[in-house]
Specification:
Strand content of chain B: 35-45%
CATH class of chain B: Mainly Beta
Number of domains of chain B: 1
Strand order of the largest sheet of chain A: 9-11-10-13-14
Number of helices of chain B: 0
Distance between the termini of chain A: 56 Å
Largest interface: A-B, 34 and 22 residues
Domain Lipoyl-binding (chain B): 1-78
Radius of gyration of chain B: 22 Å
GO molecular function, one term (chain B): acetyltransferase activity
GO cellular component, one term (chain B): cytoplasm
Helix content of chain A: 25-40%
CATH topology of the largest domain in chain A: Rossmann fold
Strand content of chain A: 15-25%
Largest sheet of chain A: 5 strands, mixed
Order of helices and strands of chain B: EEEEEEEE
Structural class of chain A: alpha/beta
CATH architecture of the largest domain in chain A: 3-Layer(aba) Sandwich
Shape of chain A: globular
Structural class of chain B: mainly beta
InterPro entries (chain B): 2-oxoA_DH_lipoyl-BS, 2-oxoacid_DH_E2_comp, Biotin_lipoyl, Single_hybrid_motif
Helix content of chain B: under 10%
Distance between the termini of chain B: 55 Å
CATH architecture of chain B: Beta Barrel
Pfam families (chain B): Biotin_lipoyl
Strand order of the largest sheet of chain B: 1-8-6-3
CATH class of the largest domain in chain A: Alpha Beta
Oligomer: heterodimer
């Protein structure tokens, strides 16, 4: 908060008052602020999930919301993910704007039915009569040495489901504004929170959201583009710093929207650098990196200097905490990927 | 730092209470995980309860001779604020280590 510029306290704005100015927040505080402001701005918004109410969420993301907005707008549910999303369907049909939480990414599997056969299709099925203004929040990806099923990377799954939008923020500023943006849409949005970055602090500018659609150039560069999302953006920025020490000017492209992917923004970056490496935590086979690589190939084949490389998790279930650092792409593996692109020569 | 309370667990099959016999730690004392905290007596046996975690004892509930019900707070600990929630650890933000050096020959 030391560099706050005439900003209201992050957790205690006057109810209904719009936030202004800039302030430093951790990502979980930024998401908390976004939920608070979404509830204040939209009387139809409700927050539901396991432990979101009295406890305030296991990562304190929903801290204080029930005390302020009451237990009829921020409420605890049984430990039943299919019930949480099934109830969200009913709430949406009744005119509410549910913001459900599934406590950990790996526990959304029992609710895939509700997500795929109801939430994603209801608008299509009813010819637009019943849109599903649902924002599903979910702590996602690995990086905190948690037990099995607490560190999945499911963007490939959600991005393939027609009817769902998928977004993942990479900084507190994006976390605030993308969540407000997602919660104000009529479409169902899966909002994947990079849980390893919850404690990352950064400046949130409440007055200038910036462009909330499409890709975000996290770092400008000339020689090669690293494409990433969520927690991997920070790691790619670190890899770009390392590459700069060796004389390579790397651009880091934060994809942000994983469905729909901003193919134009993606192509614009690759057209400039002519080399690309996609980085993600999910297993490589049929991962979203394959889709990104193919979009680049379709749009930039004539100008590419080398095939698009992928640096990803491995084709195994996400391992236990002690092996996590071997599984999640690290700086060295990203640099190896960059090196493979640099060394490619046409025959 | 955060405070974490340790409620009296069920020490047998369906026991509802235990009587404090002797505290083995003092308020302000740093205890290690599995270090004996308190000796209690139930209707079945007397036993030493090990500490469920490392931390500093902030409060103890119940003097010797008093009975505590299962689920009531027995000890409050002060623990470092680096637990990530109910599980996991907060990743350290340190400068990343690199071993790989790039051989940059752009041939543009």
């Amino acid at each position: 908060m030391s560099n706050a510029v005439a900003a209201p306290p992050a957790h205690a704005p006057e109810s209904g008052a719009a936030r202004t100015g800039r302030t430093s927040l951790s990502m979980n505080q930024a998401i908390n602020a976004a939920l608070h402001d979404a509830l204040a701005a939209d009387p139809r918004a409700v927050v539901l999930g396991e432990d979101v109410g009295v406890l305030g969420g296991v990562f304190r993301v929903t801290d204080g919301l029930q005390a302020e907005f009451g237990a009829d707008r921020v409420f605890d549910t049984p430990l039943a993910e299919s019930g949480i999303l099934g109830m969200s369907v009913g709430l949406a049909m009744a005119g509410y704007h549910p913001i459900p939480e599934v406590q950990f990414d790996g526990f959304v599997y029992p609710a895939i039915n509700q997500l795929v056969t109801q939430i994603a299709r209801m608008n299509f099925r009813t010819r637009g009569a019943l849109p599903m203004p649902i924002t599903l929040r979910m702590p996602s990806f690995g990086g905190i040495q948690s037990p099995e099923l607490h560190s999945e990377s499911l963007e490939w799954l959600f991005a393939h489901v027609a009817g769902l939008k998928v977004v993942s923020p990479s900084s507190p500023h994006q976390a605030y504004h993308l969540l407000r943006h997602a919660a104000s849409r009529p479409d169902p949005v899966v909002y994947m929170e990079p849980k390893s970055r919850y404690w990352q602090k950064g400046e949130v500018d409440f007055d200038e959201p910036g462009n909330l659609e499409g890709v975000d150039v996290a770092r400008e560069g000339r020689h090669l583009t690293l494409v990433a999302w969520g927690a991997m953006v920070t790691r790619c920025l670190q890899a770009a710093e390392a590459a700069a020490e060796d004389g390579l000017d790397v651009e880091v492209l934060d994809l942000r929207w994983l469905s729909p992917i901003d193919a134009d923004g993606l192509a614009a970056s690759i057209a400039k650098t002519r080399r690309a490496v996609v980085v993600h935590e999910a297993p490589k086979t049929a991962g979203l990196g394959a889709e990104v690589a193919q979009l680049i190939t379709e749009r930039c084949f004539g100008t590419l200097k080398a095939p698009v490389e992928r640096v990803t998790g491995f084709d195994v279930p996400f391992p236990s905490g002690s092996l996590e650092n071997e599984y999640i792409p690290n700086i060295d593996r990203i640099l190896y990927g960059i090196q493979r692109v640099l060394e490619y020569r046409r025959g | 730092m955060a405070e974490l309370s340790f409620p009296l667990p069920d020490l047998g099959e369906g026991l509802i209470e235990a009587t404090i016999l002797e505290w083995l730690v003092e308020v302000g004392e740093h205890v290690e995980r599995n270090q004996p905290l308190v000796e209690v007596e139930t209707t079945k046996s007397s036993l030493e309860l090990p500490s469920p975690q490392t931390g500093v004892v902030v409060r103890t509930h119940g003097a010797p001779g008093e009975t505590i019900e299962v689920g009531e707070t027995l000890v409050v600990f002060e623990v470092p604020d680096d637990t990530a929630g109910i599980i996991g650890t907060v990743p350290k933000d340190e400068k990343p280590k690199r071993r790989v050096r790039l051989n940059v020959d752009l041939d543009d």
